[in-house]
Design a protein that fits this description.
The chain has strands at about 1-5, 10, 15-20, 30-35, 45-50, 55-60, 65-70, 75-80, 90-95, 100, 105, 110-120. By secondary structure, it is mainly β. A hairpin with a 2-residue loop joins strand 10 (about 100) and strand 11. The termini are far apart.
Length: about 120
């Protein structure tokens, strides 16, 4: 299982770091990713990171504002978010799996873990 922690209510322009702590998973062998789902919208990929942290991938809407990272010794993945926008409001969930083709991440076969953590950005 994995648990997302660190969400909360912030104002537009603020920063926030959320974490995903994995247990019962060979964490260091998996590519990992963050997904988010806003009210009334489909879940979307936010960022992916290779199992060894060598490559990272971001969707266009978060490039330059979000940074994904991991600490395999702690079985933990992070998402640092700066310059947050109201449209970043969503439940953020961590996922294990997916593949990298070069520097591009594909979420095929990915498994979403846990309930996620709520991030709310007020305008």
């Amino acid at each position: 299982a994995a648990a997302g922690v660190g969400g909360g209510l912030v104002q537009a322009g603020d920063s926030l770091r959320i974490s995903c702590i994995a247990s019962g998973l060979a964490f260091s062998t998996y590519n990992m990713a963050w997904f988010r789902q806003a009210p009334g919208k489909e879940r979307e990929l936010v960022a992916g990171i290779m199992w060894n942290g060598r490559y990272t991938y971001y969707v266009e809407s978060v490039k330059g504002r979000f940074t994904i990272s991991r600490d395999n010794a702690k079985n933990t993945m992070y998402l640092k978010m700066i310059s947050l926008l109201p449209e970043d409001t969503a439940v953020y969930s961590c996922a294990a799996g997916g593949v990298f083709n070069g520097r591009t991440y594909y979420s095929d076969g990915v498994k979403i873990w846990g309930k996620g953590t709520q991030v709310t950005v007020s305008s």
